Each structure stands twice: as structure tokens, then as C-alpha cells.
Amino acid sequence: MGTEPYLSMFSVTVVLFLPLFFDFCFGRNVDFLSNNLDVLASKDTVLKINKQNSQFFYRNNKELDEYLKLLAEKCKSIMRLYSIGTSILGYPLWVLEISDKPGEREAEPGFKYVGNLHGDEPVGRELLLLLGTWICDNYMEDPLATYIVRGVHLHLLPSMNPDGFDRRSRNNAHNIDLNRDFPDQFLHHNDNEDSCQPETKAIMNWTRKNKFVASASLHGGAMVANYPWDGTSDGRTKYSRCDDDKTFQYLAEIYSRSHPYMHQSVEFPNGITNGAAW
């Protein structure tokens, strides 16, 4: 993936997806959104964010560890670094919490981003580092960064699969695809949680302990917003509708249409797809 699509995806994530998501899902009548959304989604704002984050390179696991610790210390009034477990090879699964009251429970929506679930899809881990860095550098200076910190509890897991990243492999150190390792309504051989991989167990325990209202996982390989369900009862490739299908379509299309290219996709109408139909 080249530099321009990479930075464009980051801009969409920061500029539009989060505020629209919170406004729609929680019915918050936020004057900030109604008065400033056009400005936040403007080309000037996107270019400003791109310029601030124009330096891009992939960090190895040691560098990721060091960078997260430095970032959390730099902005310790709004950030907290914690681990939800370790990988098979012993790498911490670091999460960067961002809030005006990190470490405290608040009556605010909790949202989690997960990157690098597949070890050979590393763009997500750098996107989340850039997102955390941008918020750290712009809190109290930029209205959107300030709004995110004050209006939500944000949790960023840059790398769910550091072992796979080290090995340049899709799978973890046990050669398991973590994206197929969770209990699934259509895959009953995964019902035994004791047999799940340590990275998978860490995500499940983390989710149970926190009241996340929604999540997003950043993958690589295609420019599309994918929404549930991802499976079918008979294993066939076809549309698999969940109860909140209209809501997920709405959110996916907001994301897609905020991107300069995604909504123009020839392969995916409007730049979105139901996972099971893909």
C-alpha cells in the first residue's frame, strides 16, 4: 500500500468515523458536531493531518514497545498503557487507553480498535500509533482531538499478533489464524474456549471486562468497509444478515464515502460489503 492511500485511511479514521459513530449510536446532541462537522471533514483538515503524519515506517516489536511507553508518558494526563496478556513468544499485548480520565470508568462510550490481527497485515498497527500520536500532539489545540478525549473512552491495541509480525506470517506462532479462532455461532468446533490461543483468550477477557459499545479491526489487502456477519450456517458465500444490519450498513457507508477512493470501488458497491457475501 502506498503512502497516499495509507494516510488517506488514517485521515478518514480520525476526521469522520469516530464523531459520526458516536453521534449516531448514542443520540448525543453535541453542538460541537453540528457546528464543526463540515470543517472537520474538509479537505484542509485532511491535508493538515496528512502533513503532520507524513513520516511513515514500520516499527519492529521492540520499537513498538518503546514507542508506546514514550507516548503514554508524554501524554500521561490523557493516556494509560496497559497489557491484556502476552503472545505465545512472550510479547505484551499493549493497549493504549485515551480519555480525559484514563483508568477510570465513566458514563461515556467505550470503543476499541484492534490492529495487526494477521501478522502480515501491519498497516493497522501503524495507523493506530499515528492516531494515538495525533491525539497526544493535538489535544487542547485541535477541536476534534479534544472532543475525542473528552467524549469517549478509546482503547487502541496496535498489534494483536506480534509473533506473526515477527515471522512475517498471517498466523501466530502456533500457525493458527487468529481470525478463525474465536467462538462462532456457525463454527461450533470453536466453542471450547480452553483450546483457543492465548492472544484470542486475551481479547475475549478484555472485552468481557470492559463495556465496549463497538469495535473495529484494521486489516490489509483490500480497500473496503466490511460489516457483519462474516459467516453462514451452511458455510456458503452469501449475504448473512445480523439484527443490526441497517445500522452496520450505515456506519460502513459513512466510512467509505469519507474516503477519497473507497466508495468508488468497482468490486464492492459503495465500497462496503457484508463479510459472508465477500
UniProtKB/TrEMBL annotation:
InterPro entries referenced in this protein's UniProt entry, alphabetically: CARBOXYPEPT_ZN_1 (IPR057246), CARBOXYPEPT_ZN_2 (IPR057247), Peptidase_M14 (IPR000834), Peptidase_M14_domain (IPR050753)
The UniProt similarity line reads: Belongs to the peptidase M14 family.
UniProt cross-references to SUPFAM superfamilies, sorted A to Z: Zn-dependent exopeptidases
This entry carries the following GO cellular component terms, namely: extracellular space
Where in this chain does the record put each Peptidase M14 domain? Answer: 57-278
> What is the organism of origin for this protein?
Ceratopteris richardii (Triangle waterfern)
Swiss-Prot/TrEMBL keywords: Metal-binding, Zinc
SMART domains for the chain: Zn_pept
Molecular function, one GO term: zinc ion binding
Give the highest taxon in the source lineage: Eukaryota
Q: Example GO biological process term?
A: protein processing
Official protein name in the record = Peptidase M14 domain-containing protein
